[in-house]
# Entry
Amino acid sequence: MTGGGKLRKKHIAMYIGSLNKGGAERVMCNLAEYFYSIGYKVTLATTYLSDDEYELPDAGWKVLEDEDDKNAVKVLSPDETERYVDLTGGVPMGIGRVFTALMPYEQGNRLQNFHRRIQKLTNTWERIKPDLILSFLGKNNVMAIQSALGLDIPVVVSVRATPSEEYAGTGLNLAMKTLFPGAAGVVVQTNGAMDYFGSLIKTKCKVLPNAVNEEFIGHDIVPFDERKKVIVSVGRLDENKNQKILINAFSYAVKKYPDYRLVLYGDGPTRDLLERLCRSLGILDETGKGAAGKVTFMGSVDRIADRIAEAEIFVLTSRTEGMPNALIEAMALGLCCISTDCPCGGPADLIVNGRNGILIPMESDVNMAMNIFHALERIMEDPTIARKMAASALEVRDKYNPQVINEMWRKYFEELM
# Structure
């Protein structure tokens, strides 16, 4: 209790590298807004200030253009460029923010920097005095636990991807196995991710799936018969997302169904390779405006719900996934969804094969491309099956509603604080 007899607001610190526009960052921002909205004190602890961050309606800070402002605080971007913020220049008593990067004058050699980062985090926790620390992603999780040792603050770490990928390095994997048993909790998104861990860590695990983004929950549903003959894919263009098998599958399908087109949303290191593949197959949309029988690369875009809402089919081709936001969101818009049945089981948690989507077994790229073609063919040939599948997909709106998932987080945190 406070001196006035009122219950003190419980304080949650949320730790992540930055608020750059990625899946994990979006989930953390949504959680920050939710806990703030129900009366908690929330502080976001980030290493850096990114150039392309999510904007929080209740942010208590303001990004500044230069250092001339009297309240300017110097921070670093991921490339260690100097940036400036006013830590109290946003919403009064809003969501707080602190930065934990080592400034140039604080840096030494590699070993010194590791220990100094841990100490800076420890100093941060001692200064802001949270009742609970939530950390997201890989190395951050290890550092959060280590920096809070001896502080009597429960630390919850959240593994957002396939654990074997997120903790692939020998040193990081050893640190995870050593420190995770000391966490108050380990949040994973799927049962498959939980099964990766040994019994000691598994006892600390809690499965909390991603919620459907509000943008998709509130979006109008386009009747199936009014949808366009468009196949969409949403995600970073990289080797793990493996979009080349979709392009190959589409090259087969378009020979039989020339009215369909494929649109890829997202950017990344394999874009040039994928465009060359499309060009070699004679299916690249050189205009970028969309054309039947062609593949259009749209790059990264805002308001993705508006872009894909009228499409008929969504395809996810990842080699590994946690709980894929893009798949949940496509299902929430009533698209017919096809996904690889990849580890750690996120798509399999969402799709009942043949009922609300189609799962593609993990095989060689050649076999998966052919199986995706057959799945596309099944949907394109039979509107009755497609219509039922799309209607069943909409059930994720209730099962993964933000109110439902947020309440799961709240109850879990209350048990630990």
User: Anything to note?
Assistant: The domain at 11-211+401-416 is CATH 3.40.50.2000 (Rossmann fold).
